[in-house]
Amino acid sequence: MNYDYFEWEKVYSIPISALQHYIYCPRQFALIHIEEIYEENIFTIDGNFVHERVDNADNYYNKQKECENSLPVWSDELGIYGVIDVVEFEEGIPFPVEFKRGKKEDKLADDVQLMAQGFCLEAMFDKNIEKGAVFYNKSRRRREVSFTPELRNELFETVNIVQNLLYKKEVPPPVNDQRCRNCSLKRSCLPDIEVKIKKYNEEYL
To answer: pTM of the entire structure?
Structure first.
């Protein structure tokens, strides 16, 4: 069997979630999307519950607007695809809403994920989309995100980097910082392995 096509598809058909994973932690991205390692913990399970709840249109809070739940989107231009939690429509203009489990705060990873969703919607609906929102379940608030030229460039650059890592199958080194504390991949990542090796070498070699 020729596996070239499947390798091509993996590099040029990227889940939007992979972009969010990369910006949050390049090693986390590589473990999930290159090594194909994924583990659950209490935080990922809680996030799954949030998404399962919003997938049901009867549970969505903004019933005054026309909405589509769990809308599949893609961009042939960038080679990305995903599912948007909710798309609201205001006078025919799509407004993507991404749901997160935590507290409301500015996060570039969330912004790029939302920008990618907006970029896909622009191509699919042939509309200019200027903004979207991230809803934070713990705060019960949402943060509006403007799709600025700077954020669009951040999206393009991230797609290029992710494609390159997928093509080369490179796994970045661990970061070993506060991001590791609640990461479900901590056991597979071994974020402190380099520190432990250095300490062992200093003590015993």
So the answer is: 0.83
